[in-house]
Amino acid sequence: MNEPYHEEVERFYTSDLKKPPVEKVNVWPCTGGSSSSSGVSFSCPHVFFCLSLLCQIGNLLGHPQCLDYGPPFQPPFHLEFCTAYENFGCCDQERDNSIAAKYWEIMDYIDPQGHKLCGAYIKDILCQECSPYAAHLYDAENPQTPLRNLPGLCFDYCSEFHFNCHSAISLLTSDKHIQECCETNKTRFCNLLNLHDKDYCFPNVLKNTALNRNLGSVVADRKGCLQLCLTEVANGLRNPVLMVHANDHTHRMFVAEQLGVIWVYLPDGSRLEEPFLDIKTIVLATPWIGDERGFLGMAFHPKYRYNGKFYVYYSYMDKKQVEKIRISELKVSASDVNKADPHSERNLLELEEPASNHNGGQLLFGVDGYLYIFTGDGGKGGDPFGKFGNAQNKSALLGKVLRIDVDGKSPDGKPYRIPPDNPFVSDPKARPEVYAYGVRNMWRCAVDRGHPVTKKGRGRLFCGDVGQNRFEEIDIIVKGGNYGWRAKEGFECYDTKLCRNSSLDDVLPIFAYGRNVGKSVTGGYVYRGCESPNLNGLYIFGDFMNGRLMALQEDEKTNKWKKQDICIGNTKACAFPGMISSYSKFIISFAEDEAGKLYFMSTSYPSAYAPHGSLYKFVDPARRAPPGKCKLKPVPVKTKSKRIPFAPRAKTILELLNDPPTTQPPAKSSSPAGVTRTLSSKKAKTTPPTKIKVSAVKPASAGKKTQKIKAKAKYHKPKQKVKVTKVSKTTPAPSLTKK
Predict the structure, then answer these.
(1) Which domains can be identified in the chain, with CATH numbers?
(2) Which of 36, 401, 647, 713 would staple 436 via disulfide (CB 3.0–4.6 Å)?
(3) Residue 62's pLDDT is what?
(4) Which segments show compositional bias classed as Polar residues (predicted)?
């Protein structure tokens, strides 16, 4: 590759950009050779250019992605101009109208013959911004590589365009180097626009059935494993057992650690330095690995916005050294909305725990406004308490789902009221608080918000019930239901005598799995958020012991649930800014925020005192909601405590791909720890405003890279109409006078 040609190629990528020296990129090996279409050798001394712009693109591979570094979407309204992408792509109606306006301004400077010859070419080129593969066409998949001026065109198509319309190149780009070198040189021009992946250049990308067959659907590999991505949201947590929101429109997230500390995370990702609540001196927790005791549950009152009440569930040791579970009510501080008042605690219920394990811990409010409490069976193994065990004994509160009304008091003096429609209120042998029974140790339950439009499924209670030694199960809780334990474990008998009892009448799980799949289920959520439409209706859960993520999909005709594994961090599917390729193994809990986005918490060392826990958010790389549909407007809250910015620890997929070779010393960075540096090769040069700009904005998830990136499709109008003529290869190109 000679020096002049290399300079032209690099100018194509860096026109109007101020580009400092860039670190060498260490990616997969890129062997030498020649492009069959261009004849250009790849074995050149320019290491950065060869590796970054050619090899790296091939290794990231093409995947659906827009110029704003997000997945494509289904436009909410019909596209009038770029109609090829009206079902799925990267343009909404506003963007489509902007491209159409640009097209007609360009065509105003082309003569009638040029309209016929070049109109379709110019439209195609402009509309590639709407392609679901726009980022690949413009080399925008990796924020550390510069954007192209023009989209990648297949060589044959490019040759036809250049043969018929080379005089229009100056209308599509203001790059003088391209105009000077390429208006008369088809080979050079088409080499510049050539893509390393022949399948992804335009128009081949439209014809490739493999790329377009399931475009917009959740990606699954050959084994049916759903390909999802993750972003790191928080880290350094000590066994994070839950994350909840207050449903007060502030979009704050409250994350609780097992030892009894609750932190406040703000919508901008920062954490307040002072905790919302710190009761670690009361909570019974130890540094022992796998100890199930501690702070286990929390739920905000449905009217928290008005009454400031919330509820907690934790282990503690009473004065007589008896281990107990306490469920109590607290209030937010009158002087600080981000602090609870620890002196406001009002005990609702205390249960003596006969063993240190199987402590339950879930608190949640149903759509009926009542508080649901999920207790464990008392511990040890096989529920050995009494003739039938705690779980089958309706006069015991262990091994149950309880339902109480926290807004009233009972005539007998209890600090809560019994809902009048509780199933066993008229049974003298049962506790009136019991809503369902026969559960072993339900760990993490959630209320289904229901379908966003039809509300189907709203109010269903999903729970993961940890098994004894054979099966883990997922249940949907119904009023008065007997979930079988200890008679059954999953679908199978555990206690043969109890299992054969004709009066058992137990509710079977919607799904159960054996020890070949996992050893300790962690219940999850039905996704009902706005950001990832493909995930709507999927129940996503996991296994604590082996870190496996899974999803259940309901067949509405048969009411059966089908399980699929979830695979995280695929290099091809998740090559987006901010996406990570791995997570800590021990999955402790799942959560959803106020907008319905789905998260999970896990740790690499399951001790209540070890700060190795992290919070992750699920992302569907195949499809997102249209821009603006999920826009949040959090109610601002006054903060008295210092804000601690989020500092990511996990390396993103793009960082891993762009890591310099281990033989080279890492470049020094003046950036703060945990903050992604902005490469000045991506900064847009300040230019005078023009009537039409094509811009791509990096999302906030890209860290500091939030400045607008001007796509290089700018143009300068000539003073007069351009006569576009069909010329032969030897005919000199007509000159274009620019304004």
Answers:
(1) 83-207 (no CATH), 226-657 (2.120.10.30)
(2) 401
(3) 58
(4) 665-679
